Known about the structure:
4 copies of one chain form a homotetramer.
Chain A: E1 21-41, E2 44-58, H1 61-65, H2 75-85, H3 93-107, E3 111-121, E4 123-128, E5 131-139, E6 144-152, E7 155-169, E8 194-204, H4 214-231, H5 237-251, E9 255-264, E10 267-269, E11 283-286, E12 291-300, H6 307-310
Antiparallel strand pairs in A: 1-2, 2-3, 3-6, 4-5, 6-7, 7-8, 8-9, 9-12, 10-11
Amino acid sequence: xxxxxPEAASAQPYEIVSEHAELGxxxxxxxxxxxxxxxxxxxxxxxxxxxxxxxxxxxFTHVHTHGDNAHxxxxxxxxxxVYSLARDGVGAPEEFAxxxxxxxxxxxxxxxxxxxxxxxxxxxxxVTENGPHDHSFVRGGKEVRRTVVQRDGxxxxxxxxxxxxxxxxxxxxxxxxxxxxxxxxxxxxTDRIMATxxxxxxxxxxxxxxxxxxxxxxxxxxxxxxSQFAELHSLALQQTxxxxxxRVIETHEEVTEIRFSCPNNHHFTVDLSPxxxxxxxxxxxxxxxxxxxxxxxxxxxxxxxxxxxxNTVPAFA
Amino acid sequence: xxxxxPEAASAQPYEIVSEHAELGxxxxxxxxxxxxxxxxxxxxxxxxxxxxxxxxxxxFTHVHTHGDNAHxxxxxxxxxxVYSLARDGVGAPEEFAxxxxxxxxxxxxxxxxxxxxxxxxxxxxxVTENGPHDHSFVRGGKEVRRTVVQRDGxxxxxxxxxxxxxxxxxxxxxxxxxxxxxxxxxxxxTDRIMATxxxxxxxxxxxxxxxxxxxxxxxxxxxxxxSQFAELHSLALQQTxxxxxxRVIETHEEVTEIRFSCPNNHHFTVDLSPxxxxxxxxxxxxxxxxxxxxxxxxxxxxxxxxxxxxNTVPAFA
Amino acid sequence: xxxxxPEAASAQPYEIVSEHAELGxxxxxxxxxxxxxxxxxxxxxxxxxxxxxxxxxxxFTHVHTHGDNAHxxxxxxxxxxVYSLARDGVGAPEEFAxxxxxxxxxxxxxxxxxxxxxxxxxxxxxVTENGPHDHSFVRGGKEVRRTVVQRDGxxxxxxxxxxxxxxxxxxxxxxxxxxxxxxxxxxxxTDRIMATxxxxxxxxxxxxxxxxxxxxxxxxxxxxxxSQFAELHSLALQQTxxxxxxRVIETHEEVTEIRFSCPNNHHFTVDLSPxxxxxxxxxxxxxxxxxxxxxxxxxxxxxxxxxxxxNTVPAFA
Amino acid sequence: xxxxxPEAASAQPYEIVSEHAELGxxxxxxxxxxxxxxxxxxxxxxxxxxxxxxxxxxxFTHVHTHGDNAHxxxxxxxxxxVYSLARDGVGAPEEFAxxxxxxxxxxxxxxxxxxxxxxxxxxxxxVTENGPHDHSFVRGGKEVRRTVVQRDGxxxxxxxxxxxxxxxxxxxxxxxxxxxxxxxxxxxxTDRIMATxxxxxxxxxxxxxxxxxxxxxxxxxxxxxxSQFAELHSLALQQTxxxxxxRVIETHEEVTEIRFSCPNNHHFTVDLSPxxxxxxxxxxxxxxxxxxxxxxxxxxxxxxxxxxxxNTVPAFA
Lengths: 317, 317, 317, 317
């Protein structure tokens, strides 16, 4: 049984011993450090708006078992480091996360890895009658650019993504020929609205992380997703995801795998016949729950999926 | 005391009598009917994505006091009506709300008013290498266009607005010279980030609702807000709101009043000196709570604010 | 037209003049100051967890029109005041808001009113095998106790409420006999689930604010709401609200008016007949949107509703 | 390159071929089926309120690569199945998920696995002056009971948890002796508020799933978490999690591993000295972001963590 010191005891570390339990995977740090950086290019300002989470891995056993903080780099100190390292600019989210990984693993002997996540929010320059403004901005779309960088000893894994990229097509989507049994009540649809909030994450080849232009790849993957969504006549949301994935894999050698987790945001044609009206696919009810949930990974042939890259990426769940 | 029939009783209306209580203002209906309309212009589709709330006012006393539903137009029926009236198009949110107002007050003798609220979400056409797509769309910014239309007998009140229009300027904002007493710990700031999520609502002159181009006014007011935010050297967020309001009132004769409710989304300069670094307004912490909350109404001179237009508009709260 | 100094100008106040616009109602302050107070009763701790918003009203015209902050009690200073006044305890939310009202209106000549809102979150003492713990707590239900106190010169208005008090009854609710016309497709229901998230706000008699035991009234009103919801055989949600209101008005002389804004959280009986099953009101789909929205005010006979108490209370919208 | 049929083409399946891409892990289904079940025990009703997600795995390659839905059990059909299987009761969330697993893998040859997630919301019986009510309920705490059941061929994995179990202790927590370097600005704290929203997930021994009383284990684990939080004098949140885990592992033979993901919800002592006041740990500011994030897994000695149980459980991310 657990036997612990009474609360009144002095705050000296001591071991909480267990015959049956042992500490497994663990990581800790400071989450959601909201950081805005302003870069001045003469009078013209450039804005970087990110949300940074830093978590360390290594020899932290005694923090858990003994309450001994000798190895504990406080989460507050991790926060300080995030802001300090941003002093001269953030760069691409992936680059900033990699700098954090380097910093922490080099600074503390017992830190041999960690996880750094960055979300980035987009801003557009406000345009007035005098043109684009030097230092005034309006938030862009609701989509969020993201990255999860993990360091494991000498190995580094970069998985980047986009979430909440909401798209809808009002034609060019069908869903027919699915299993017809007792539990089917849905009719075939030869022309339906297809809508989803794309969550896509893709892993970078660990051997080629250093030379990647992460901004360019992000822009390109995002555009491939939009173009394929628009132009493919879809027979199933699964097929659309496959088409997106194939083109990403074929276009971007630096990408080893891409995963999608996409709701099917149902838009139901409203039955107007009780009111003496037809409804030739013009009036729809946009439903909330339940929703379809379609998830798929597509890998580069011959390159197995790397669990250490993906095990803490919020997808497939 | 309340005296009511046991649950086992038959469902016959009966009066719950009170010597001391009387029914006051009331309204009821169906909220958040999510409606998507697709208009086909040849192969080119046009999307209208709205969220419609319908609430009726009139003689509904016996629904409350007796549980007698003879006058009750079911909220489900109001929902049906929303979808039915959208069969041939929605138009501007204000126009759709006005059509609902006309329909309900004309259809039921005992309905003499009501409240219809419409939110509209923006979509952009997806652009591929083949140009703008005919029927595929991506969600635009997170801001929401809104309207609250109220009918009270013969009178009609239209108040329209925008919410979640998030803006930030990285220079051109100061805050100095405020009250200096025991409770002040904030230093003067001659150059700070100013950021807010604009909520603005404006009322239309009830005598000139019929001729208004609501889409054009919306676009213009939104642009005035952005331009004033960008171009005014701000001495206080209050001053910025005043400048926006003045220009709206002076530009749009059809607008009688405009109200703002704006957080001051604080961006604090991070103290990097413990790490041997300066911070010449480049690294900021974007805070969540608490936040400033600045609210102001600006009216057209000589035109008093109309409570019946504003009393259920979600502002100043 | 607005004519303003260029951004490069020095930060001297100047007037933004308008021939057509004038400043109306305005208030400003610091919103959502998250405050936790710990009171020590020997070893036994008592927790008060609140969210406080402070907004001032008075002569703040020049802040808007001139950017002159001489009268501006910074929102940061208001925040400081909130924490300072909590030093020796918070008390009931209403009492704390009243103390803030007194403080601000007494401290600054040009402040003649304001609005103070307090939300309170409930915590239960953790119970272990050793009994209720002295200083360890678990969050209670999701409902929130709230108050909005407004000061207008010599007058003080207290409106208190509860939000997100979620209730459901699986029997004892019917909805029959409503309007049967073209737009009705809903069948009569003699036994349905009724569920709602109660939002209730009640105003205190301004002449009797000083002697009220706000905690006792809160507990009593909450219990009346629950009991009436449970025990009334409901013919309409409107009737249930009326029954709650009547009993509150009759029980609490200090309450002059009570308002409800309640969704009808629909639970639809699922049609299991395609699967060869009946469904005698046992399996339900809990829908999100749309939902019914039922709003009603009940006043004490002979006491007119007081707009200054209610105009910034978030109800009916 | 991707080569696809024009949208105008008939909806015949065809292959989107890729030389470089191959389909990896995939699953699909219907998410968040909101299901309420009412069980009648004479006049006394019992409520089960759950949110069910069903996702299938198996041979669905052609749905992706060809848009061929012959194997596709529509997400709508999965929804129907969820409601149909609930006809005679839900039971423990784990039991319901296991029944869904059995049903789907037995009904379709090509379905060899899947993922079923159930969230459960708690309701308390409303108590009136007449005692606990037969069929009227009020929502309990905001915590959510959850389970993720995965089937992989013959193997079945059950991981259950609790999320949003919010706790706070106002004494009995210290944080001292952590790394002191350039990036440390935080002082030692010998007596601080410790608060967190516990997310805990635990896996059941796959060999002993059939005999488990899941309700009893849930109640016991939850109580252990609360008791350990309350009674351990904490030297670090990590230590508290370890103590909770040890006692769960030692008490529950059926549990093979437990994982925690817990924010450190910071409560900062407010500096009241500018206002001439001390603050002996009585007034705190409850911060939102950033927050500490402490994550740890504790396994039973000799039982390795099972990736197939954990790979889609939303923890450590």
